[in-house]
Amino acid sequence: MAVVGLTASPANAAIVSVSVLNFNDFHGRIDSNTTKWATTIEQNRNATTLLLSAGDNIGASLFASAFNDDKPTIDVLNAMDLDVTSVGNHEFDKGWPWYKSHVVDGGATAPDGTPYPQASFPSLGANVLDASGNPVLPASTQVSLGAANVCIIGAVTQETPTLVSPGGVAGLTFSDPVAAVNKEVARLETAGVDCDATIASYHEGAPQPGTAASQAQQEAASLAFRRMTQDTAPAVDVIYNGHTHQPYAYAGARPVMQTDPYGTSLGDLDMNIDTDTNTVAVSSARIVGRVAAADLTLPRVAAVDAIVKDASAKANVIGDRKVGTISADITRADADLVAPGIQEDRKAESTMGNLVADALRDVKIPAVTKTPTIGIVNPGGLRDNLFFKGDLTTSPENADGVVTFEEANAVLPFVNNINYVDVTGATLKKVFEQQWQPATASNAFLHLGVSKNVQTTLDPSRPLGDRVTSIKIDGQLVDPAKTYTVSTFSFLAQGGDNFAAFKEGKTTDTGAIDRDVWINGFFGDGTTKSPTSVKRQLFATGLEDSYRAGDKAEITFDKLDITSAGIAPNTRLDLVKVAKDGSTKVFGTTPVVGGKARAVFTVRGGKELRIVAQDSGTTLARSVVLTKPTLAHKVFPKKARMIKAKKTKVRVKIKVTSAVDIAAKGRVTVRVAGRKYNAKVKDGVAKVKLRTFAKPGKYKVVAKFRANDTFQGASERFTIRVKR
Fold this sequence. Notes:
The protein is of the alpha+beta class and 724 residues long. The chain has four domains: 2-309, 4-Layer Sandwich (Purple Acid Phosphatase, chain A, domain 2); 320-525, 5'-Nucleotidase, C-terminal domain (5'-nucleotidase,  domain 2), CATH 3.90.780.10; 553-625, Immunoglobulin-like (Sandwich); 630-722, Macroglobulin (MG2) domain (Immunoglobulin-like, Sandwich). Helices cover 18% and strands 32% of the residues. Strands 1-15-14-2-3-4-5 form a seven-stranded mixed β-sheet. Strand 32 (608-614) and strand 33 (619-625) form a beta hairpin. Helix 7 (215-221) packs across helix 8. The longest helix is centred in the middle third of the chain and has 21 residues, at 299-319. It is elongated. The model has no long low-confidence stretch (mean pLDDT 94).
């Protein structure tokens, strides 16, 4: 097969006009929009239309689907006569045995007691291999559209074992998806299969939407995307993507398409297949937005409507009840604060991530005797937001500030067990280092949510593996040799999302489910939950572990703002001196713009330096070490024979020299001949005028600089000779 590119439709008896409608990352969107999505499909469908999904049909689903193990979503896809899907990583959320017994084979029992339907469409996974290296799913399928035979090959991201609980895919290998697709192309050719057109459906994609980057720019930014577009066998005519939730329709020499997630858009590609020459001419490739109104006169849409209503009614019995309250919006990080809604940003800290981490640490699990030290959550485990504004049309209890069971469940839909992992401080540092992901990962950085008793400092300018410059728990630096207990999802405890360091620890399965800890334990305590704007992980370059009073400091900060909904950006940094008595004084400020700031200052004395971001109150503290000045004396008259008993009043100058860029200030005491003299240091010198000496002889002198908030104490001893 060969793709000819975008052309007009020729008049030829061997030409078959085919349309392909595609979607990806549906994620069990069973709600009022499902029939609109179905209507969009039906209004663009004809007798020679192929309906294709690029995976993640289920998993991370809305409550109306999730409460019944996504049975309603499979019912909807069956009702829509989906032709084929490639599997996504979320198809393995409950493990491969579950997906096979429920979706592929059907007949298992759903949570509501009804039989789980067998999918009427094949699930493709050319690169999902068993221990012998054989695919456990079909690598390809064929669909007849008129006189044309269309071959579809499917593959899933190679990252899948790091994106799901590893135990659920034990014994499976996820090989290079491009190599697997090319291998299947070769097998079909060797087997003599007449593929008039060939499609590759990859659950993997580019990192940005098509409106923000060209295909060439996407290829430069993503090795995985570049390999799909450049290394997929020439026999493949069209490439479909998923996984990264970025819409694009690149109509180059070989079209590459991905739609918006959650059924909000549809890919629509028209092509003319010459069945004599097995060539393909693509006439159009576009992204179609979901229609505004459902057309229930369309038979498939009517069937979907019945499924959605039944699922919603059953879900509402549980989902509508109030489980807690919030004082303001609590959301994931937003990549675009201007655009409406939350454009999820897994690279940034969020109020939701930190709140869930607090829940994992704070809720006592009765079956376990130990108490966790901290809580840690991965951003991909957080699938929805909590908004303060209520909606009484969805539930009679859903007033402003109310959190319903359905809303709380949507945040943590994966039903992970809570694991306690005992790790050393050294291993904990590795965990935070692994926020910087491997080069092959979809996200270069995954920002962990941490409980409120944790503060880390991160320096991205340092070498990979050495970017965590400090970790504090309950205000104390982590001891590399000490053991700390982390409460986290079983997904992370098993090394998911490339956080392999967790596997170095000793794991205890508490038996508790994240949903129950979150809803019954955390929200069930009766207190209203609030977001906090205080950052728990700070990006700072040039930060020292401690400072000397008088040091010149230059610290560059980034990502000082939490970008969740309702959190105001910081506007300045206050530089604060903390005196020995605990009193504080702001000695300087520097502006914060877009979460960035550069602070250049001389460290004052006291016991601590604090840098406080306002108005979030995010505080970074470093101890201040006081420097010790040196003392040097001069005695006047200079000549000893001129100093006579009962006559000469000796003058002493004590020079106080600072080793740092702060002039020494304070007081000096001089003790000699049983008397004590005090003098103030001015311009680095203290001047003392002594009384006359009663007798001749050698007099020992002790000069002391008194310790203060800026300098340590210092002393000097010398002798004055007094003549008759």
